[in-house]
Amino acid sequence: MGKVIGVISIKGGVGKTTLVSNLGASLANDFNKKVLLIDANFNAPNLGAHLGVIGAKNNLHTVLLEKSNIREAIYEHAYGFHIMPASVDALKVDYLKLKDLVKILRDKYDVILLDSSPALNDEMLAVIISSDELLVVSTPDHPTLLCTMNAVRLAKKKGTNINGIILNKVLGKKYELSKGEIESIADAVVIGNLPFDIRIMKGLAEYKPMVLFKPTCSLSKGFRKLAGNLIDEEYEDKGLINNLRDFIVNDVERSLRLIGLGD
């Protein structure tokens, strides 16, 4: 059975959806895993917009409303993973049905990543109870940490294992909270420290995860290391030349799939 990992935060703008798309791309391309990304941010979905899957007729909402079947709502992405987007129309659904949907899908994938709502609500609760473990995304500042503490408390209350806190958009400044301070206050371990890189905005404009857009940068290496951590495999940094070669080969293969010439 596949591992189901929920990615949560209680503050928008910390990079939760960016983390989901990059972990999915890395797990599929660097570790050869079968991966499904589900946009469980029911009322304000962004995952599809990050990856160029926009306006999908069949989606998470239509499945939960029994207006389409599961197979119709899962799309094979050119970057090597599968994605189930959500409706941008914010249709009313029973969020807690997500758990039953995940049960059906988990034996078909190595990893399922759930992108949650950035709010302490029933949408986040649905992700928490549907997951085997959680990643809590935060930035190293006091306002976000206070929100992070609430997310950690809710997860522990519901009995879902917290894999750890991911610190994102780290600038390396003295005024930022340290790893030790965050672990002490939030009562959870920090398992990822991702630097801020403005180039990620250009990648988003091209619907391309950073691990594919700038595969050799520090941020991409951080995503890959974290992806390996999630499946108990160590990411081997093959160096600049080999990384570039693999990226070019993979990019050609993706392009061939897009035009129908690949396997």
What would you note in describing this structure?
By secondary structure, the protein is of the alpha/beta class. It has one domain (3-258): P-loop containing nucleotide triphosphate hydrolases (Rossmann fold, 3-Layer(aba) Sandwich), CATH 3.40.50.300. The protein is 43% helix and 16% strand. It has twelve helices and eight strands. It has an eight-stranded mixed sheet, sandwiched between helices. α1 crosses α11 and α5 (98-105) runs parallel beside α6. It is globular and about 50 Å long. 46% of the residues are buried.
Topology:
Blueprint: E1 3-8, H1 16-29, E2 35-39, H2 47-51, H3 60-64, H4 70-73, E3 75-76, E4 82-84, H5 98-105, E5 111-115, H6 122-130, E6 133-138, H7 142-158, E7 161-170, H8 179-186, E8 190-195, H9 200-205, H10 210-213, H11 218-230, H12 240-258
Parallel strand pairs: 1-5, 1-6, 2-4, 2-5, 6-7, 7-8
Antiparallel strand pairs: 3-4
Helix pairs in contact: 1-11, 5-6
Uncertain stretches of 5 or more adjacent residues = none
Strand content: 15-25%
Give the fraction of residues assigned to helices: 40-55%
Largest sheet entry: 8 strands, mixed
What structural category characterises the helix and strand content?
alpha/beta
Distance between the termini: 26 Å
Q: Find the CATH topology.
A: Rossmann fold
The CATH class, by name, is Alpha Beta
Please give the CATH architecture: 3-Layer(aba) Sandwich
Q: CATH homologous superfamily name?
A: P-loop containing nucleotide triphosphate hydrolases
What's the Cα radius of gyration?
18 Å
Spatial arrangement of strands, main beta sheet: 3-4-2-5-1-6-7-8
Query: Number of folding domains?
Result: 1
Give the overall shape, derived from the CA principal axes: globular
Average pLDDT, rounded to a whole number, is 91
Q: Care to count the β-strands?
A: 8
Number of helices: 12
- The H-and-E topology, N to C, reads as EHEHHHEEHEHEHEHEHHHH
